[in-house]
Amino acid sequence: MLNKDYILGIIEKKLNTGDTQGAIKFIEALIKDNPNDLDALNLLAIAYRLKGDFNEAMRILKRSLKIDPNYPETRYHLGLLYYEQGDYLKAIGEFYKAIENYLPSERSWKSDAYTALGETFYKLGMIDDAIKSWKTALEIYPRNKRAKYYLNKVKAGKIKRVKKPILVFDFLRFSDMKIDEYLKQKGKNKFDSEREYKHVLNKIINAWNTNVSKVSDKLKRMTDKEKLNYFRSIKIKF
Question: Which SUPFAM superfamilies did the record assign (predicted)?
Fold first, then answer.
């Protein structure tokens, strides 16, 4: 049996010094010793992501999901991988799944997921949602330096609205439409809680990724009327 703590210390040093290939060798030794070690699999995915091999990182994370689809660290790192590839909507979905599955004692990790969620909202130009996420990150774990950094930039007026691609405008229209549909189904005009809003938004993001993202080229050629009709045809089970 390998001394896991000792090996983890070596891996951390190698990752911090940029020796990702050296780290990979030690992580693979841990996995060989225990093929279902989720922490080791996530470390291996991190190493390959740092190395720039996103395909291998994705393969490893999907292997981890087969062992436990609700393991929050896997969802978090999958979100980071999507984020770095510019697939922001999928990243948001993964960050929400991570947040939902962190234990109450895992405050700092949950806070990190909210910070990353805020960064992703910012990339999409959804500034108010970004600020709300960073504030939540600090409420959960007040020592979160990244969340403090972003909120200080907001106070200093250095957080500016970014130029959004047309596809993001389409998503916002799709999201608004489906939120209206949900509220009408429930016979109310607003959400009862932030948890309810997150649940609905996650469903909307999944529907967008499953249906709309796959026909993005076709979407660009549609007229506004065709887009709205297409959006209405997509049914979501909330």
Answer: TPR-like (SSF48452)
